[in-house]
């Protein structure tokens, strides 16, 4: 590790030194896995609980993988679930729906922590999360969740480097998030759309593409892979078209800009710019 990362890791130790028993919101991704590992190292396995939360908006395979990973790490695991599609504010799929989604999650975790006597609930947010549209940050702050990697000023590339140094198997794992992120704001969420996206992405992944996103635009599926893989994806166009049409999409397209996280948030940025321009023109 370089000196800067060593210093951040040392500061993380100091953060944990002021804690006693912690509950970790564990997804099995690289960020929350690093939080869990460092909590285990600093506090001992008996003082750490990994809570893995199932939801209609996350893949069953991700849930099962997270549970197994925590067990492999020798940490106690609690499996639980929330029902996001029962919340009208989340189903509405507006720009603030992420706030309500995180609020539902964090409220549930706080209840567990209070019931079982854990001092803090920890999540895996990192410094990169400050650079994107993240209404979940508001819910985190309101409910007192600790983001220890952010407190230690760690960015994704540093999280991966430290995770590799610690021998964590997910150090290079692609980012994963709610399947709702594939559906445009203003389009209500339902099980059918979520299932379409889930099955479409699984199919394209099985062809050897990772990361991949299939964005749901009504009867159009917009596929994102990394720019260097676009040509390769086209070679599978007939297989992909046939499969995705069988899932209910009428048209299948490839996004030539390629995979990028938060692409559905780009429309929010455009709207904000247009509002500023309009105010300037009027003023």
Secondary structure elements and their pairing?
Blueprint (H helix, E strand, L loop, with lengths): L2 H15 L4 E4 L4 H14 L4 E7 L5 H13 L3 E6 L6 H4 L5 H20 L3 E3 L13 H8 L4 H4 L4 H10 L25 H16 L5 E6 L2 E6 L4 H5 L2 H10 L4 E4 L11 H17 L1
Parallel strand pairs: 1-2, 1-4, 2-3, 6-7
Antiparallel strand pairs: 5-6
Helix pairs in contact: 1-2, 2-8, 5-6
Content of β-strand:
5-15%
**Overall mean pLDDT score?**
91
Form type: globular
Number of strands: 7
Low-confidence parts, pLDDT < 50 over ≥5 residues? 268-283
Which homologous superfamily in CATH is the superfamily of the largest domain? HUPs
**In what order do the strands lie side by side in the largest sheet?**
3-2-1-4
Structure in words:
The structure is a single chain. It contains twelve helices and seven strands. Helix content is 48%, strand content 13%. Helix 2 packs across helix 8 and helix 5 packs parallel to helix 6. The chain has a four-stranded parallel beta sheet, sandwiched between helices. The protein has a three-stranded mixed beta sheet with strand order 5-6-7.
Summed up, what is this model?
The chain is an alpha/beta fold. 48% of the residues lie in helices and 13% in strands. It is built from twelve helices and seven strands.
List keywords for this structure.
48% helix; Rossmann fold; Alpha-Beta Plaits; alpha/beta; three-stranded mixed beta sheet; 283 residues; disordered C terminus; globular; four-stranded parallel beta sheet
